[in-house]
Every structure is written in C-alpha cells, then in structure tokens.
Amino acid sequence: MKTHASDVGAARAHQASSLASFVYLSTSQRQLVRAKAKQWIAWRRAHPTLHTAVGIGLLAFLFAFDAYALLELPRQLPFDLATRSGIVFAALTTGFLHGFLVCSIVTYSVHEGAAHDLIVVGNGPVTRVLRFVANNACRFFLADPEYYAGSHFQHHRWLGTEQDGSFTNHVRLRRLLLAIVPMAPVFSHSDFFPWRPQEHTRSRKISAVLTKLHLAVFFAAMAWRFGVLYALVSLLLVGTWISFVLDRVRESTEHLGMPLERVHGTRDFGLGLWGLLLGGGPWGQPCHFSHHLEPALPWYHQLALHFYLHRILTPEQKRQFFLRPVVGFPALLVRLARGGMR
Length: 342
Prior knowledge:
transmembrane, globular
C-alpha cells in the first residue's frame, strides 16, 4: 500500500481546522488503562495453553464453517437447486457468507497472527508449528503476512505521518472506489491494499500460488456438487469481491478524520452490526481504538478494554471514539464521500 503526500496534507489541514477542541485521554485515564492491560497480559502468560487452544480452535472453526457454507449450506437454503434462479440465489447467499468469512480469516491471521504474534503463545516444537500455520493461513486468500507485518509495525509507530504503513486518516473517494470494484486485487490497478506489496516479491508469489490452488480445489468441488454456475457466482464473483469490500471500507473509515497521533488516531466501531460485519467478527478489529491503546492485548481482551473504556471515558470522549448505534457508520460514510471528493 502506498502513502500519498496529498492525503497526508489533507489530514493535516483537517486537524488544524477541526480538531483543536479534541479531548484526548488524560494521564489518569491512560494509567487506568495500562494497569488493566497489565492484569490481562499477566493472565495470558499464566494460561498459554488455553490461549493457544482458543486461537487455533477459532481459526479451525472459521475454515470449517467456510467449507460448510460453500459445499453444504445450499442444500439447507429455501431455494430450488433444480432451477437456474434457485442456483443463483443460493450462490449469492453463500457467496456473501464466504466473503464475510474470508475477511474474518484474513484479518485474524494477518493482523492478530503475523503482525502481532498473538494467536499462539510459547516456543516449543508444537507451538512453533501452530504459530507458522496461524500466521500464514491468510496466504490462501492472497494476503502476504511478511509484507503486512512490516507495514503494520510502521502503522503503529508512525500513525498519521508519511511513514505510516497504511495511512487512512484521509481517503480519496476515487481511491476507495477503485479498490472495491470487482476483481480489483487481481488486476493490480490499485495501490490501496495493505496486506500485500505492489512489487511481485517471493512472498507475494507464494501467496498467489496458494490462493490459486485453494480456489481451484473449491471451484472443482462446488461445481461437482451444484454446477459451474453456482461455483462461478458464489466463489469467484461474489465471495472474493465481498471480502475485500468489507476490508477496504473498514480500513477507510476507522481512522478517518481522527488526530494524527498514534494512540488517539482511530475509533472503535464496537460490537454492534457495523463493527462485527466490517471486521469479520469480534476478532476482526471492531475495537481499533482499544487496540492502539494496548497493542499487546489479544482480540478478546480488546473487547474487554472496549467495555472498560465505556466506564472511564467522559461523554464527549465517547462521542469522539465510539460510533452511534446503527446510524453512526452511515454518517461516517457520508463524511468520507464529502471529504474524499474535495
């Protein structure tokens, strides 16, 4: 993903004109958050086996559920699979679910795993294998964990600057639209994908090969069970498209218009409809402000921190860092469209 100087300049102009009264967390609030995070980190270190079992079990469940959705769910849907219209409706349903699950798997594996190494705890021979599997599972869906880990480190260290590995405090509308047209990652016309490099590196090529093999296997199995039309619509036309639409829309809005500061420069979508949909589930970064406050916390403790913040933030701070239920995210999209067209 490329950082454009014009986007950084637009974000700086917004900060100078609109964020003068922004209310940052106080020193006492930061100390409360740090103390709570230390308790949770101590718990994780005291229960490494349980933590790893949850992490690997979740990843296995997501892969299994995805296979079920593509290969078995059509038989459970109220559509006549003997007709073309029934096949198309079934394909649209399973394709959307597949796209959501792909977004979930990629975000979990590449962010929680490759970038922060939080899925598996320990250094024994078994845990090393599990860590490799967890951190590279995203390769089956075109993501490059090696590239993402490096750029995400820059994102945390240099959030809101030209060195930010995935700068999204200001996003041009045209740039977002070019990234969410069907098959955008395949044609490489967009520089707005943080989970892979623009260059065709060895690591990116490995991910491309594994993705093609994964698609070929599932396409063949789906076509054998329900026909080529079903496989084409569900897997290739809808599923792959929905997955990166959710990913790009989430990342284009979670930092949008926030301060150019590495801790306070993002917001929590929360555990409502929008946070869970765009993040691919509760493990998919619906609480991004919590994550930037304490990057060492795994996803389930980020959720706990989100609820803890509800207790210690002032009403004005809550309005800044949390979305209003239901209408908050559409309002954010309108803000993106207006600001991104200027």
